[in-house]
Amino acid sequence: MSEKAILKVKGKEIELDVIEGTEQEVAVDISKLRGQSGVITIDPGYKNTGATKSAITFLNGELGILRYRGYTIEELAEKASFLEVAWLLIGGELPTKRQLNKLEKDIKNNQIVHERMKKIVEEFPSTAHPMGVLASMVSALTAFHPTTLNPNNDNKEDYLNMVKLLAKLPTLAAWTFRKNIGRPINYPNPKLDYTSNFLYMMNSCPNSDYKADPIVAKALNVLLILHADHEQNCSTSTVRIVGSSNASMYASVSAGIGALWGPLHGGANQAVIEMLEAIKADGGDAGKYIAKAKDKEDPFRLMGFGHRVYKNFDPRATILKKYADDVLKALGIQDPILEIAKSLEETALNDQYFIDRKLFPNVDFYSGIIYRALGIPTDMFTVMFALGRLPGWIAQWKEMRANHEPIGRPRQVYTGYTERGFVEMDGRKE
Ligand code: CMC
User: Residue 114: which pLDDT band, with cuts at 50, 70 and 90?
Assistant: First the structure.
């Protein structure tokens, strides 16, 4: 695009390049602005700032579109396996049968985690939150795979590191869970596919003849796919910015897990159920909590409502809403929490405050409900999100490196004291 944007600031006119993406998204390129003028831009929360050009995920928040490498999330959720989607995100194309078979085989060969890592998991107190354990264990993996420490854009090495991480994260997640509930740790079962193996390690008695419930395995596959990438969200931006310092894939992913943990991001799925339980314990009046969420003096927010980029509907939530109904029906689950969820959803969707602000249930509202129906404990929900998001983090980390992006280092507008003299102790006021 040869169009230019003109910025007038401090009496000076500055010409800036305008760039356009393949989906006609327009951006003003300010990368040389400070050099040209000494001026920077400020954008808390990066609401209007594009941090990178990316070819991985496209989303249009107004139209509720989400596509991975051009394929719609609806088609992928219906037709693909999670590992197919992982390959697609990381490699750019759907895998051939041979490529997928190799990936599945390589993953099965790398699911085992070092016995000393098991000891580390066992040493965490039972109060440890699974997300903290997971982030620590991914970081600890670097000690057992030191070649990961010096990323050098070698495709073979990146492939091996990706395989190890995709293979070991479910093992670590399941170990964390088993340790928390005081049950013996299960080893991976190479006879099972990716999702069934995870369910086996979570739920089964060691060496039992386990067969995953097909409804549960399918629901988990869909959940993982829906969470697999979401362009420059908080945790993905964290992964990219940590990686931009040349930190390893594992260190970057470990940081991403920390970012995902927060209740405004991935931690919302746990917060949704905790909120529903609190409403139930308080008599089940959804209206009371809607009023709290609207009260500007009250910090309470409806967890699982609203989204930074989706302003009409969250396409992932649309898919999951249907799955939530199917799964609950198929598993014959009747849960009073779900009645509260439905009433909250209905009340909020018809309330002017929520309509005006375009606040509607997001992916975490329904994912929490499905995880609960699948028997996954509340504090493991965000771990499930992390398992799903892993291919996206790896894809974004690789893209950031392939683009030779500079180290991430935002500027600031300083608002503190200007220079002042040091005050001796005797002269300081109490
Ligand atoms: N409950 C009540 N009011 C809300 C909510 C909510 N959940 N979310 C936003 N608002 C209000 C907010 O108070 C503000 O009102 P006003 O204009 O009168 O000041 C307005 O809506 C805009 O909110 P914002 O905080 O400026 O919006 P944001 O884009 O910065 O925040 C969000 C997006 C997702 C952090 C926020 O909607 C939220 O806190 N939601 C609850 C947590 C949640 O469910 N997070 C999961 C997001 S989906 C998973 C993922 O991709 O991470």
Answer: very high
